[in-house]
From TrEMBL:
This is Multiple sugar transport system ATP-binding protein. Belongs to the ABC transporter superfamily. Residues 406-417 have a biased composition (Basic residues). It comes from Pelagibacterium luteolum. GO terms for molecular function: ABC-type maltose transporter activity; ATP binding; ATP hydrolysis activity. It is found in: Cell inner membrane. Its main location: membrane. NCBIfam families: PRK11650.1. The keyword Transport applies. Pfam families: ABC_tran, TOBE_2. Residues 4-235 form the ABC transporter domain.
Length: 417
């Protein structure tokens, strides 16, 4: 049994509270990923599990045993860091064998264990090389191998792939996915900034913000049913669009969230929102269109394949079916499961006329089909036509002219991509 139970855990450095009342149950053999903005406490939480950091209060149990005061080496854990921390003067074999030598493991057993780990990680041909003669991905695999030979109950990874280039990241991510399959009994906790790593590797994701656990769930639970505006904006790349004020009025919500991939472009005048394209990106397989509809940040609309729309075009769009999320002013979802239910209200002034047939329809009657989405019969007024656009791509968002003019407002959460 190597389940992990964290109860009422606090961590303070002097007056600074870095982790606040963290409660987590991680099952034996589970692969759990911690995500959250830089400085939110991911590494600190991982280090408290490893014992490299003490906890201020609370309880930490591994396999049913309270380990608050147990030394790191006695916790049955192994940790892999972003920096591989290999011994430069030792061969790959010796790096991997080092901890076993320290515990006076018999030579033939060391050989067998190192060979087994090397096979698992495809390091066989490199066993006699020094780390300096390896690529970054190979070095990180040695660091993982060094941890595997210790046969840990709990494997902790702190951004192990973040030093690797894009191609190596993909390859090493696959190695870690295979490792997870070949060690089904081993509990794994993994910190990352990378959306794809989190979504593809995790059985469950823990989203942290300012030392607080915001939501725990499977990747799809977090994607489909974010329980806060923060999680909605953090999970998914490019991030969910947030439409506010007049743009959210027909949804009877303070904020309507729609993922770029859940927007559909419709003939002008038939969408819920209409605006001017300020930028478009063709990636071949798909494209992203950045549209100014009067929000601080451009709304991103994803299209399959190449896009015919370019800067200056006016487009109209709306969510596909009921694929949108409504939030109140506190950022809490307005429906129980986070999948929004359209509620019709009188249109805001900028949406000139609402469809009289749809007005007043009960919630149940309008869920689940594209036609059911709250939709003005006439085009929404083109709010951006006369503006000068400010295209400033940063972290996946583009500021609109409105943002430039508007007084500083608390920006929506921007995931670190
Ligand atoms: N030894 C320390 N003394 C004081 N504050 C610390 C110490 N170690 C970490 N912190 C603070 O604790 C907070 C959490 O740090 P931590 O390294 O856990 O963040 P993180 O989520 O891993 O961030 P990143 O994504 O940038 O790695 C930060 O605000 C950091 O400044
Ligand atoms: Mg960190």
């Amino acid at each position: 049994m190597s389940d992990l139970k964290i109860s009422n855990l606090y961590k303070r450095y002097g007056n600074v509270e870095v982790l606040k009342d963290v409660n987590l149950d991680i099952n034996s053999g589970e692969f759990v990923v911690f995500v959250g903005p830089s400085g939110c406490g991911k590494s600190t939480l991982l280090r408290t599990i490893s014992g490299l950091e003490s906890i201020t209060s609370g309880t930490l149990e591994i396999g049913g045993r309270v380990v608050n005061d147990v030394a790191p080496s006695k916790r049955g854990i192994a940790m892999v860091f972003q920096s591989y921390a290999l011994y430069p003067h030792m061969t790959v074999f010796d790096n991997m064998a080092y901890s076993l030598k320290l515990t006076r493991t018999p030579k033939d057993e060391i050989k067998r264990k190192v060979q087994q780990a090397a096979d698992m990680l495809q390091l066989g041909p490199y066993l006699e090389r020094l780390p300096k003669a390896l690529s970054g991905g190979q070095r990180q695999r040695v660091a993982i191998g060094r941890a595997i030979v210790r046969n840990p109950q709990v494997f902790l990874f702190d951004e192990p792939l973040s030093n690797l280039d894009a191609a190596l990241r993909v390859a090493t991510r696959m190695e870690i996915a295979k490792l997870k399959e070949s060690l089904p009994e081993t509990t794994m906790v993994y910190v990352t900034h990378d959306q794809v790593e989190a979504m593809t590797l995790a059985d469950r994701i823990v989203v942290l913000k300012d030392g607080v656990v915001m939501q725990v769930g499977t990747p799809m639970e977090l994607y489909d049913q974010p329980q806060s505006l923060f999680v909605a904006g953090f999970i998914g790349s490019p991030k969910m669009n947030f439409l506010t004020g007049k743009n959210a009025a027909t949804y009877n919500a303070t904020t309507v969230g729609v993922r770029p991939e859940h927007m559909e472009i419709v003939p002008n005048g038939n969408g819920d929102w209409t605006g001017k394209v300020i930028y478009s990106e063709d990636l071949g397989s798909d494209s992203y269109i950045y549209v100014d509809i009067g929000e601080e940040e451009a709304v991103i609309v994803r299209q399959d394949g190449k896009t015919p729309y370019h800067s200056g075009d006016i487009i109209s769009f709306r969510p596909k079916g009921s694929l949108y999320h409504r939030f109140d002013e506190a950022g809490a979802p307005l429906s129980a499961n986070g999948v929004a239910t359209p509620v019709k209200t009188a249109p805001a002034t900028s949406v000139e006329t609402a469809n009289p047939i749809e007005e007043g329809m009960p919630d149940e009657g309008v869920v689940g089909s594209a036609g059911a989405v709250a939709m003005p019969a006439k085009p929404a007024r083109q709010r951006t036509a006369s503006k000068t656009e400010a295209v400033t791509p940063e972290a996946g968002t583009i500021k609109t002219a409105a943002a430039k003019k508007a007084p500083a407002r608390k920006a929506p959460v921007k995931p670190k991509l």
